[in-house]
Amino acid sequence: MSSKNAVPLPVIGSEVTTACGSAEKFACDTPRASYEGKWIFFCTPICQQEFIQDPRNSCMAGQVNNEIE
Description:
Layout: E1 15-17, E2 23-25, E3 32-35, E4 38-41, H1 45-53, H2 61-68
Antiparallel strand pairs: 1-2, 3-4
């Protein structure tokens, strides 16, 4: 994972789609990770940590593996 070439964060209060597909309002403490130049948002810090530790085997494995291959 790298924050290299990451897009800017959304405006606070704007709607973001989380890794699981839910819509959340973005806040300073919204769990997130930068991956291949894109922000990925999470509903919980647990999902965020799982993704940071191993993106290919996290809750987003299907989405991440499709983008990489």
